[in-house]
Amino acid sequence: MKIFSLITLCVITSAHKITQLKVPLYADPRRAAELSCHFEMDDQKLHSVKWYRDTQEIFRYNPSQKPPIRLYNASGITVQSGDCQTDSCLVRVMPPPLATRAAYTCEVSTEGPKFQIARQTKHMTVVAMPEKDPVIIGARKLVRPGEQLHLNCTSDYSLPPSDINWYIDNELQKPGVWERTELSAPELGGLRASWRILRIVVPPTASGALSVRCEAILLVEPPVIRDVTAIVTIHSRTQLSKYVSNTGNSKMIKVIFLKMFVFSVALKIHFYLKIIEK
């Protein structure tokens, strides 16, 4: 008898179900996000469809009431609109301008006397991705040993703001006291740009080139990374002396060729004058 009752209960509770729940994994705070819930009622009569953000109700559809749709603004979000059919409900919400993660639940219930409930939940994170790579300012193409470089890396606007790391030849540079990531004032949707400076001294014995890389990390799951690399060429004293020497030699050769050309022209003029005199 108990086994039969359990089987009967399973059949009844599975008579209506949610077939598809669509909740964006990421939502941009500058744009409305669409949430949709699709369900099958079979032989059951729909009582209501409710949407929750975490534990707070934000939307209710009850076809037997007037008006059938009610919107509830809660937790800093704005519910813009809703549209329900016999087998689905779509809700548009404006996410808060904060880097938050929340659970969105669709709840479909039947009419009495059973008042059975089907629920599904998915999470949505408020994120605004940077649209551009970071930019490095101050990385000269040519430096000498012992020179000091003042670099600035600025990331694009995002939410949450990007954290910035510096790498020299793939070695992470630990920030000094005055070299922490700084943030701009918030723009539309709470987006901020970020930047970080780096001061380095080219080693006196260095030669060749330095690879300077700036990495902007958006701390979401999974992390989003955008980076940019600048190559700085180092001219050592030996290289500079060779350059100067080669430059001096080339100038001397040019002077010699110029003198030879002038001498040959003068010689030709001398011969022409001799011919004319005869």
From TrEMBL:
Gene3D superfamilies: Immunoglobulins. Residues 1-15 form the signal peptide. It comes from the Eukaryota. Residues 130-170 form the Ig-like domain. Keywords: Signal. Transmembrane segments: none annotated. The keyword Signal applies. Coiled coil: none annotated. InterPro entries: Ig-like_dom, Ig-like_dom_sf, Ig-like_fold. This is Ig-like domain-containing protein. It comes from Parnassius mnemosyne.
